[in-house]
Amino acid sequence: MPEPNDEQFEKYLKNFRPVDPEPLPVRTKKHTAGANSRSALAACAVACLAAVALVIIVLSSGREGANEQSVSRPFSDADALSGSNDGRRVELTTMALTKLALDDRQAFDEFITDKTQSQFPPMSTEHSALRVLAKQ
Amino acid sequence: MPPTDQSLPHIEGLYRQYGGPLLLFAISICGESSRAQDAVHQVFLKLIETDRLKSALDPKAYLFASVRNALLNDQKSRQRHVPIDADRLWFTPPDRDHAAEENLRRALQSLPDDQRQVVVLHIWGELTFSQVAEILSISANTAASRYRYALTKLREAMLVKENSNA
């Protein structure tokens, strides 16, 4: 390199561009836009979850309604007279029996007689406890 | 005073425009690229927080002075002088001439601190001698004479290096 004068040398030095610093660690406009899109995504996700939860609630309440409907449907006599021993069936039977007693007295009496015979000890023997008690 | 929507892009623009020369100036003071980087960031982050640049008569000179003050305060707290970090690039060289970049870097490192700062501010900071004088708290004449000495030494150092490589 021939020895340059000051002006040439300055020009030569200016060809070297200082290295740029790293980006500022701060929320600039671009970062804010990124954050906005992230929060929009989060909002969408929350909305989706809420929609799914709503659907589940509606479906489950529909099922409960169906159950309630099955519970409250009018019982047939056959239902009432089926003689099931589980708690709900006993309750249903009681309701149905009431209905039966109101609607068809004769059928109700027959049913009660049958039940009495199957559930209580027989009163036919002379010394049965029940007969003795009845006499007293 | 918090920054307004108008001031933030302005500060970002200043960072893009003067970030390189400010970083170089900071390196010429402290010798460490990472500390220099921190000082430049610190100045701009404070500006974003406070929006103090509005009140500055000469924003460019204000930025260089702020970086210098930040580094001097930091140096006071550290109470030690760190030798210049010789491995990091200071410049993007023309025509990817990395040998020339290293040559220039070493020549700059060989200058006394006060002369190196004047050269960096005048050539790469593109500041006038009065602005340089304001930043370094010296007279404009002192700034100009330091610059002349520095330029001569720099040229000699670079020529010697080039001739030894040839």
In brief, what are we looking at here?
Chain A is mainly alpha-helical and 136 residues long.
Chain oligomer state: heterodimer
Shape of chain B: globular
Count helical runs of chain B. Answer: 7
Integer count of domains of chain B: 2
- N-to-C series of helices and strands of chain A: HEHHHHH
Query: Strand portion of chain B, in percent?
Result: under 5%
What key attributes describe this structure?
heterodimer, A: 136 residues, mainly alpha, 2 domains, 71% helix, B: 166 residues, Arc Repressor Mutant, subunit A, 7 helices
Note down, in words, how this protein is organized.
The complex is a heterodimer of chains A (136) and B (166). Chain A is an all-alpha fold. Chain A is 71% helix and 1% strand. Chain A has helices at 6-14, 29-72, 77-80, 87-103, 105-119, 129-135, and one strand at residues 17-18. In chain A, α4 packs across α5 (105-119). Residues 29-35 and 83-91 of chain A have low confidence and may be disordered. In chain B, 73% of the residues lie in helices and 1% in strands. Chain B has helices at residues 7-30, 33-50, 59-78, 98-110, 113-124, 129-136, 140-165; one strand at residues 91-92. In chain B, α2 crosses α3. The longest helix of chain B is centred in the C-terminal third of the chain and has 26 residues, at 140-165. Chain A binds chain B through residues 1, 3-4, 6, 9-10, 13-22, 24-26, 28-29, and chain B through 8-9, 12, 15-16, 19-24, 37, 40-41, 44-45, 48, 89-94, 100-101, 104, 123-124, 151, 154-155, 158-159, 162.
